[in-house]
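Reopening this one. Same input as before:
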Amino acid sequence: MRELRSSSFWRAVLAEFLGSLLYALLGLGASLRWAPGPPSVLGAALAFGLAQATLVQVLGPVSGGHVNPAITLAFLVASQLSLARALGYLLAQVLGNLAGAGVLYGLTPAPIRGTLGLSALHPGVGLGQGMVVELLLTAQFVLCVLASFDDRHDGRPGSAALPIGFSLALGHLFGVR
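Same output, byte for byte:
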């Protein structure tokens, strides 16, 4: 419990909150349809990927730039994160994502808002199939993050941001189609 009294712990939790807020705001904001026609799947995928890469680069030295509960849980399971820090990150991520969606909701005109970027399964895809695809894409993303932060690479954490962002964009492109 000594960790809960350290300023670095609370700075990291705050970083995860702000990172999650920005991630939701930027990613969902790019998913909105401001013009008539089909939504831009490529634009949304790139927005989420670029937001993730930017946040990993900026917040990496403070909190690791997880921004995603799946990443936090993977680091916990891999014994790279304490239970207290993981719980703090998870709470901060949930609250940050809710705050980011709330800010976007407040900033976006009602006719543009729609479902606020919420996606749904294609009518021909069953719930089980959708869950398997989500599981595989999350596993691909988590493996990329763990590999990118592996100490056996070259010790340059800044080099992790680009593959992580590309990995997330790839998952979006595959999963949204």
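So the earlier flakiness isn't reproducible anymore. For the record, The mean pLDDT is 88.
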